[in-house]
Amino acid sequence: MIKVEFYSLLRLLLKLDKLDLPAQENEKVGQLLQRIQRQLPTPFLHKLLDDNGELIPGTIILINRRNILHLDKLETPVQEGDVIAFFPPGAGG
Amino acid sequence: MPVTERYKRQVLHWGKEKQQQLEAATVLVAGVGGLGATVSQLLTRAGIGKLYLVDDGLVDWPDLNRQTLYAETDIGQPKLVVAKKNLEQINSYVTIELLQQRIDAAFTCPVDVSLVADCLDNYSSRFLLEGTLPSGTFLVHGGIAGDQGQILTLQKGRSQSLRELFAGSPQPQGDIPVTGAGAAIIASLMTNELFQVVFGQPKLLNRFLVVGLSDLHLSFLDV
Question: What is the pTM for the complete model shown?
Answer without folding.
Answer: 0.97
